[in-house]
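Suppose a colleague, Dr. K., hands you the sequence of a protein chain of 329 amino acids and asks what its three-dimensional shape might be. Before reaching for any lab equipment, you can write down a predicted structure in C-alpha cell form. Begin with the sequence itself:
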Amino acid sequence: MHRRELLTLIGGSAAAWPLGARAQQPERIRRISVLAGVAEGDAEGQVRNAAFLQGLQQLGWTVGRNLQIEYRWAAGSPSDLHKYAKELVALAPEVIFVAGGTSLGPMLQVTRTVPIVFAIVPDPVGSGFVASLARPGGNATGFMQFEYNLSAKWPELLKEIAPGVTRAAVIWDPSIPPGIGQFAIIQSVAPSVGMDLTPVNARDAAEMERGIAEFARFPNGGLIVTGSALTVVHRDLIVALAARHKLPAVYFQRQFVDAGGLIAYGSNWVEQFRRAATYVDRVLRGEKPADLPVQAPTKYELIINLKTAKALGLLITPAVLARADEVIE
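The predicted structure, expressed as C-alpha cells, is then:
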C-alpha cells in the first residue's frame, strides 16, 4: 500500500471513531433513593419492592444499565428513619421513593426540594405533606393508603363475622396523626355496632402483649388492628397474640391474613408500589411532583382466612363470603 493511501485510510478511520465511540457509550445512570419503614428481611416488604422494580423495568428502567438505587430499611425505628433520610438526601438522588407516612415525615423534614414519590401514606393532606390531593404543590406526591372513613368498616366487619363480640381492643400508634384519625373513626362507629373499645399502644411489643393479655381476661372480646409502620413491624406478634387469646381480629392489610389472621379490609399495597413506579418514571423524565395529583386506591380488598375462622369456632355466612375478594382455606 502506498504511503498516501495509508494516510487516507488512517484519516478516514479516525474521522469515524467519535461516532462509533458515541454509539457504544453506556446509557446515563439515573439515581434514586428508597426509604422503607420495614426491616430489610421483611418478606412482604421484599414482595412490594419487587413490584416496584418490575414497574420500573416495564417503563424502560433497569438497575445497573440506566438506574442506580440506594436503599435504607428502618424497621419502624424513628431514630433510624431520621438518620436514613439525611443519608439518602446527601447522596443527591434525582428522585426519592418513600413507603409509609412515618417515613415521609422525616424525609420532608430533611428536604423540600428533592422530588419525592410516596406510597401507602394515609391522609397526606391532614398530615401536612401536600397542600391538596389534586395539587400537591410541593416536592412530594404519590399514592395514599386509604381515607379515614375506611376505618369505619373494621368494627362493622368484626361484628358481622363474629356477632358475639361486644368489646374490641384497638391496636394503634397514638403518636402519629393517622393513628389518631383512624381511632377517632372507629370510636364514632363502635356504639352503633354495640362495641366498647380498649386502646392498646403498638409502640412497645412487651406493653402490647401485656395489654392484650389483660384485655383477653374477659369474654366477648375481639381485635381491631389499625394501619401504621409499627403494626406492620409487629405483624407476626399481633397475629400470634390473636390466636393465643382466641380473639377474632380484623386487620387493615391482607398480609396479616396471609400470616394467619382472620379477616382484612384495605388497599392492595403491592399494586400501589407498582403504580408508584409510574410516578418515579414521570419525574425522571422531567415532570414535577407539584403537578402530579395524589391518587387514592382504585380498589379495596376483603380477604378472609377460613382456617382461622374454623379454629375460632366462627361460621362465616355466605353473604360475607360472597363479598370476599379472596378466601384462604
